[in-house]
Amino acid sequence: MTGAVLTLAGVAKTYAPRGSQPGTTALQPVDLSIRRGEIFALLGPNGAGKTTLISIICGIVTPSAGTITVDGHDAQADYKAARRAIGLVPQELSTDAFESVLATVSFSRRLFGRAADPAYIEQLLRDLALWEKRNARIMELSGGMKRRVLIAKALAHEPEILFLDEPSAGVDVALRRDMWTMVRSLRDRGVTIILTTHYIEEAEEMADRVGVIAKGRLLLVDEKAALMSRLGKRTLDLTLTEPMAAIPDALADWHPTLEQDGHVLRYVFNATDERTGIPSFLRRVQELGIGFKDLETAKSSLEDIFVDLVGERA
Amino acid sequence: MNLHGIWAIYRFEMARFGRTVWTSLLVPVITTSLYFIVFGSAIGSRMSEVSGVPYGAFIVPGLMLLAIFSESILNASLGIYMPKFTGTIYEILSAPLSPLETVLGYVGAATTKSVIIGLVIFATAHLFVDLPVLHPLAAAGFLILVAATFCLFGFAIGIWAKGFEQLQVIPLLVVTPMTFLGGAFYSVQILPEPWRTVTLFNPVVYLINGFRWTFFGTSDVALGISLAVTGGFLLACLAWISWIFRTGWRLKS
Asked: Pfam families given for it (chain A) (predicted)?
């Protein structure tokens, strides 16, 4: 895994005002370098700018500013070479309903300037469990099978970089598992994978590195392990039998807080730590004779995390 | 040059034509036959000749262009509008295709379809009238030139259109009336003033007369002007499409 296969410098997107609608900034200047052969997850809530960013890289959206280099080729000046290196699986199931699976995948290969290669296409369709359906019209397929067709189309020209825009959207558990297996196998063959998701779990499962984006700003990029430790905050809430006025000094080591007018004692811990501190915290609570009638643990929502991150960066 | 890409789009579009080939070909055959029954037999029997040409034969170039105009606009506009409508345009936009290559694929296929339909009408007309073609090479060249020009126009309309109804607006409300008023079924010379002069402002007059000249060697207007008008319209369409790709207007966000 050496060198950058994709570099973004100051890539931004602003939409001009239209009539009574004011102009909007969909993407603030982004600097990003993607390593060859890695799986990179772009994590963010809906409307964060993930699709805008990858649409700019793929040539679907025109950037307002910045430069993009794909596999050593400038995406503007040498756009053909740059685009040949990229495959895109869009979020929407956009397909030609009347085409057969084989025809549409073969079309994609030729569209990207590659000569027909029936053996490669057959292998690709077999890998994606589509070979039996090769003569079926796309309109006859289920949503999951259509998603596979889109993946096959994106891989038909043997790209160096594969973009997966929200690959889990509308996908059942079996397909998600197959897709993750396929993504890993592509990575093993040297393909760089960039996926967008709003599921922390997906980023955690798949990625080598993670970028967090919110409100059009790339907030941070980090190795998955480091980021997950940061994002993996959980809370333990004890609903007390009697409200508490102040935190006893004996609990100071755990830095708990009182919530809901003293009715809830909250302890925040890191789920990825080997020692969460929960057993000792509960033991001490018991020793202090603090009664509780309910116990609940919760993961910080992605929204909470983003709010925290935005707050930190503001 | 991404020849594989151009060929992919061309084949895709021709396959779309192939799925509806019988409807696509039957409609012009039936329409042409009806025009011959109405204009050729009913009216033509009362008219001897127009500019020295039997009336039945006189209307053939106009009939062919009437179909070419509408089919070219319809085929080319649908070709690019459908990917926009279904969302599959993402693949075209992200492919290593230059604007020229994209246009060659879509407009090339649409032009092929239009020329096929034009030839079908020509063959159908032969069933009704004796139809000599004085300058066959010029006729073929003019047919392809006009078809390609209107396909370029249709391609631009397909990008401009925000809905299916907008695809129909220009062909139905602008082009067809201009064709009917552009001497498709009559000679401009028989019009009284001031309509004769007014008609000369209709560019379709020059297209129809240019094409008619290749059949019969006679025309209401000078051939040079016909070619200049056709070439001018072609350049205008190319300029529009070039601007669309340069700015991404209604194609890219």
From this structure: ABC_tran (PF00005)
What residues does each domain of chain A span?
4-17+24-230, 233-300
What DSSP character marks residue A62? -
Position B252 in a domain: no
| Number of alpha carbons in the 13 Å side-chain half-sphere of residue A277 | 20
Which of A68, A79, A110 would you mutate first to test chain B, the one with the most B CBs within 10 A?
Answer: A110
Q: Do A96 and B86 touch (CB under 8 A)?
A: yes
For residue B18, the distance in angstroms to the closest alpha carbon of chain A comes to: 12
Q: Which of B12, B96, B253 sits opposite A83 (nearest CB)?
A: B96
Mean pLDDT of A200-220: 86
- Chain B CB contacts of A97 below 8 Å: 86
Report pTM: 0.85
Residues spanned by the domain of B107 = 3-247
Which helix H or strand E contains B94, and what residues bound it?
helix B89-94
Closest CA of chain B from A114, distance in Å: 7
What ipTM was predicted for this assembly? Answer: 0.87
Q: Which of A183, A171, A194 is nearest to A53 (CA)?
A: A194
Q: Which two tokens stand for residue A86?
A: 């990229």
* A301 band by pLDDT with thresholds 50, 70 and 90: low
Of B5, B90, B98, the CB nearest to A60: B90
Quick check: A314 pLDDT over 60?
A: no
- B246 in A contact zone (CB under 8 Å): no
Alpha helix (H) residue ranges in chain A: 50-58, 79-84, 101-111, 118-127, 143-155, 173-188, 200-206, 224-231, 278-287, 302-313
Would you say residue A18 has pLDDT above 60? Answer: yes
Total tally of structural domains belonging to chain B: 1
In DSSP terms, A33 is beta-bridged to A7
Fold of A233-300: Alpha-Beta Plaits (3.30.70)
